[in-house]
Amino acid sequence: MATRTAIYSKILQKSSNFGTRSMSSWWSHVEPAPKDPILGVTEAFLADTSPEKVNVGVGAYRDDNGKPVVLECVREAERRIAGNQNMEYLPMGGSVKMVDETLKLAYGENSDLIKEKRIAAVQALSGTGACRLFADFQKRFRPESQIYIPVPTWSNHHNIWRDAQVPQRTFHYYHPETKGLDFASLIDDVKNAPNGSFFLLHACAHNPTGVDPTEEQWKEISYQMKVKGHFPFFDMAYQGFASGDPERDAKSIRIFLEDGHLIGCAQSYAKNMGLYGQRVGCLSVLCDDEKQAVAVKSQLQQIARPMYSNPPVHGALMVSTILSSPDLKELWLKEVKVMADRIIGMRTALKENLEKLGSPLSWEHITEQIGMFCYSGMTPEQVDRLRSEYHIYMTRNGRISMAGVTTGNVGYLANAINEVTKSA
């Protein structure tokens, strides 16, 4: 018995020593991840002690005092739902009411596609989650496909399709010399892509450039994609936030629907309702018929199940309350227009201030672009000078978040931009 006990003790000791050695070395090869190019800007801004510092890197709306905003329609929705709901799980597909109201914004209030139940749709974790669900769906059911992504695009798009293991290609979009759309090259890329390719399109307020195709250009893009049998996937993160009119901002999608495309669409309420931290979004996929839509939705739910099981309830309740209540929806439409108009006004003010300073450069693109971001055309080196000499923070690609521009800092910002670009 003693011998057995001794042997057992030695085995335990060896096992313990082995376990200690193994566990201590399991993660020793893990290196720190590179900083996110957008979130890193905010970190640097917060660490700066200068009273003159300005953050025009953040992708969130600010009022004219530079403060975060909670919409009054959101506050009222919170009051109405407070204490009236239980905390049970939502279905895997999320809030049916929220999804139904969201589809009306993208596809039209009286859309026949909705009436015919041809749209497979699920609640998603904002626009990012909607994109990721679709990327995984694409990989699972079109494993031979690839995704064409515009140059440039929101940096996280590349991460999303990469981690879903979908091969990526790019297509021309922005023209650095004109600071506008490289339409001819875009169309060439659409024509030259293999038939049946997937294309990622920004429905409105392109991030980061603020450059959108005109209505006629959208019609041509739609036509050429139809000829090639491509699948358009729209990321619509700024509906209503671009022009102040949600209907106008959905025009690109409506053009594709009129041309008979089957489409995918990611929608988000982060920007247009200010629900950044609630992570409320929707993924929809237009199908041939109701039977196909049922099958597609079931598969989207199956993809969501091991990711997060089911989406959160509070934000979805606020969205469905706002959109289904005529008085709150009317208030939301007014408030989203106020946000869009303030940003449009700051574009005009920044351009006028630069012109008054006698800048030798053309700044017409500031007001020709639309949405939260202005693609300034500044070089990474000029952006670095803005940070080191003027305590102005933005991403190194020269993207200015117009939401961070106020009547109080627009003059200072214009002067700094003028100083770092006048010798360009």
Automatic annotation (TrEMBL):
Chain ranges of the Aminotransferase class I/classII large domain: 52-417
Miscellaneous note of the record: In eukaryotes there are cytoplasmic, mitochondrial and chloroplastic isozymes.
Family annotation (SUPFAM superfamilies): PLP-dependent transferases
Catalysed reactions listed for this entry: L-aspartate + 2-oxoglutarate = oxaloacetate + L-glutamate
Source species of the chain: Thalictrum thalictroides (Rue-anemone)
Enzyme Commission number(s): 2.6.1.1
PROSITE patterns, alphabetized: AA_TRANSFER_CLASS_1
Gene3D superfamilies reported in the protein's UniProt record: Aspartate Aminotransferase, domain 1 (3.90.1150.10), Type I PLP-dependent aspartate aminotransferase-like (Major domain) (3.40.640.10)
Biological classification of the source: Eukaryota, Viridiplantae, Streptophyta, Embryophyta, Tracheophyta
Pfam families recorded: Aminotran_1_2 (PF00155)
Family under the similarity heading: Belongs to the class-I pyridoxal-phosphate-dependent aminotransferase family.
Name of the molecule in the record: Aspartate aminotransferase
Cofactor: pyridoxal 5'-phosphate
Transferase recorded as keyword: yes
